[in-house]
Design a protein that fits this description.
The chain is of the alpha+beta class. It has 2 domains: 79 residues; 36 residues, no CATH class. The N and C termini lie far apart (110 Å).
């Protein structure tokens, strides 16, 4: 009889440990899910590090060189230096030019702006 009691206690302990292993807070499936979450967060972190490196390089360029500021002002804001001439080329639609209707060539309009 004591053998059966010991066996029953051991089975209950085994089942309790199995429950903790598979269904509790620190279970195997939960550990795998956390590992996947960690891998995703590490990938996002690497992307953020690369973006930060690019932004840091831009900041260093802007702090050190006035040329970088001038380049950005020209490309992003369309600014022109004093005494400089801006030539702006615009495409015309093919239907607006009767001479090029059959030739397939596109014509262009040039706008010139002179800053004093």
């Amino acid at each position: 009889m004591t053998g059966r009691v010991i066996f029953a206690v051991l089975v209950l302990m085994f089942l309790g440990l199995q429950y903790k292993l598979w269904f509790d807070k620190g279970s195997v499936p939960r550990a795998h899910a956390l590992e996947q979450d960690l891998a995703e967060l590490n990938a996002k972190n690497e992307d953020a590090k690369q973006k930060n490196a690019v932004l840091e390089a831009d900041v260093r360029d802007l702090e050190k060189a006035g040329e970088a500021i001038e380049e950005r002002a020209r490309s992003e804001l369309g600014m022109v230096k004093k005494g400089e001439t801006l030539f702006q080329v615009k495409e015309r639609p093919a239907s607006a030019t009767p001479a090029s209707a059959g030739s397939g060539a596109s014509s262009q309009a040039v706008t010139t702006t002179q800053k004093p």
